[in-house]
Design a protein that fits this description.
This protein has 176 residues and is α+β, with helices and mostly antiparallel strands. It has two domains: 107 residues, NusG, N-terminal domain (Alpha-Beta Plaits), CATH 3.30.70.940; 48 residues, SH3 type barrels. It is built from three helices and 13 strands. Strand 9 and strand 10 form a beta hairpin. The two termini are 30 Å apart.
Length: 176
């Protein structure tokens, strides 16, 4: 179906996310699908709870009932994932799975602390960009400085007729 690996979302029975991950990993190994199914993640983040005056860090599922799978979508890989115990189906329209967009995957991985958001754009000073997320969504701007080490870009936008500098994440903009 597709020749590049992408992230897909599978729906599971609620509370079975970790079991589905384990079962799917075993099926990938036993059926020799390591070249088509690469990573399986249950999106989780750290949550701080204070109990009896003590701080305790626990893992909380970001999307209960869902598991992310990085794979090459084909009939055989689709069959392996779809017929894993606990999987109710792929997220998508009808029977066709829809892959996540790159900025969505980066946002989830960043939230999980697995991967830092990597710049997916080659930006240069003076380049025009559009803000696609945050309070200034829809605004157009000009790149002033690329702060690769911080994963941010300094952009100038026109706000109330004045040139206004903003420091925003790479994931919040797109090239024009």
């Amino acid at each position: 179906m597709t020749n590049s690996k992408q992230w897909y979302v599978i729906h599971t029975y609620s509370g079975y996310e970790n079991k589905v991950k384990t079962n799917l990993e075993k099926r990938v190994d036993s059926m020799g699908m390591q070249d088509k199914i690469f990573r399986i993640l249950v999106p989780m983040e750290d949550q701080i709870e204070i109990k009896d005056g003590k701080k305790k860090i626990t893992k909380k599922k970001i999307f209960p009932g869902y598991v992310l799978v990085e794979m090459l979508l084909g009939d055989d890989s689709w069959y392996v994932v779809r017929n894993t115990p606990g999987v109710t189906g792929f997220v998508g329209s009808g029977s066709k799975p829809i892959p996540l967009r790159e900025h969505e995957v980066q946002g989830i991985l960043h939230q999980m602390g697995i991967e830092e958001a990597k710049p997916r754009l080659k930006l240069e000073r003076g380049q025009n960009v559009r803000l696609i997320d945050g309070p200034f969504e829809g605004f157009m701007g000009t790149v002033d400085e690329v702060l690769v080490d911080k994963g941010k870009v300094r952009v100038h936008i026109s706000l109330f007729g004045r040139d206004t500098p903003l420091e925003i994440d790479f994931m919040q903009l797109e090239k024009m």
